Amino acid sequence: MGSDQAESLRRMLAPRVTRRIAVVGCEAGAGTTTVALGLANALAMQGERVLLADEDRAAARAIRLAGAAPKATLADVLGGRMPFDAALGTRAASGVAVLPAGNVPAGAQIDDRALPGIRTVLVDAQSSETGALSPMAGAAHNFVIVMRPEATSITAAYACIKRLHHEFACRHFQLIVNMADKEATVMALSRNLARTASQYLGVEASLAGYLPLDPLVARALQLGRCVVEAYPAAAATGALRHVASGIGAWPLRQEAVSPGMAAAVPA
Fold first, then answer.
1. Contact of 5 with 30, CB cutoff 8 Å
2. How far from chain centre, in Å, is Cα 210?
3. What is the chain's Cα-based Rg?
4. Which of 59, 90, 188, 243 is the one with CA 20 to 30 A from 198?
5. In the structure, how many helices (H) and strands (E) does the chain have?
6. Are 123 and 20 in contact (CB under 8 A)?
7. Coil, strand, or helix at residue 89?
């Protein structure tokens, strides 16, 4: 609790920037929504106003698990078609603001003027069949790659980093390993992936943290809730809060306006 309070104070004193974080699963079933919604709840526990943008149009899992009932999309808000507070509709009990993303155009101004009071926007990103991200996710300050401690997932994570580096000229990625059973395994695979990404792509892949293999995550999903909200003392909740406490130290990437301009924009 003390570390959360210190982090909250540090954020209040820091220059005001609406940080945008794209949470990207390297493969189906990696746990993207678990991580995105968990981080949103963990940041809210630190006293930060957070918006979670759900790009899953079909299932809208983040919206359902948050218990929210929004009236419009983030695209509607940014396009001036509905005020932010009205678009939120019924808020999640946790206080996290949740909206379906909609079609947010490239170059949309996602800042404190468009979203009053919001300090962090987390995007529960959905990749296309070709692995491409939406313009909003692609313009994020930080990319979080969610992976599992398995060989196929490690390969998929490297391919995801390579694709995003080439498409958006990003040179720094955060890794979160989900469903990890041993810390030593996580440390070894993250070092190997970071070394390979540095050697062959010239990018930095940093381990932001890992979620232990916690049965309470599955239990929370059965209840239709986020583990951070449903089980505050769960091991996975502690891990997500630890990751959230370090977000303020992540370097801010200058956002790319569009994929075509990415090569001209420094990371």
1. no
2. 14
3. 17
4. 243
5. 11, 7
6. yes
7. coil
Q: Which of 21, 67, 1, 27 is nearest to 179 (CA)?
A: 27
Strand 19-25 to 142-147 pairing: parallel
Classify residue 255 by its DSSP letter: P
The CB density around residue 77, as the number of other CB atoms within 10 Å, is 25
Which tokens hold the place of 72? 């419009």
- Report CA 6 to chain centroid distance, whole Å: 22
Residue in the block written with tokens 């990751």: 243
Report the pLDDT value the prediction gives residue 129, as an integer from 0 to 100.
Answer: 80
Q: For residue range 16-28, what is the model confidence (pLDDT) as tens digits?
A: 679 999 999 999 9
pLDDT digits (tens, 9 = 90+) for 223-248: 999 999 999 999 999 999 999 999 99
CA-CA distance, 154 to 147, in Å (whole number)? Answer: 7
**What span, in angstroms and rounded, lies between the C-alpha atoms of 163 and 161?**
5
Which of 4, 264, 256 lies closest to 137 in space, CA to CA? 256
* Residues 92, 66 contacting (CB under 8 angstroms): yes
Does pLDDT of 256 surpass 90?
no
Asked whether the beta carbons of 161 and 173 are under 8 A apart, the reply is: yes
Burial of 3 (0-12, 13-18, 19+ CB in 10 A): exposed
Contact 188, 32 (CB under 8 A): no
pLDDT digits (tens, 9 = 90+) for 156-192: 999 999 999 999 999 999 999 999 999 999 999 999 9
Q: What is the sign of the dihedral through the CA atoms of 77, 141, 209 and 127?
A: positive
Domains of the chain by start residue, with CATH: 2-253 (3.40.50.300)
What's at 54, amino acid-wise?
A: D
C-alpha 62/C-alpha 59 separation (Å) is 9
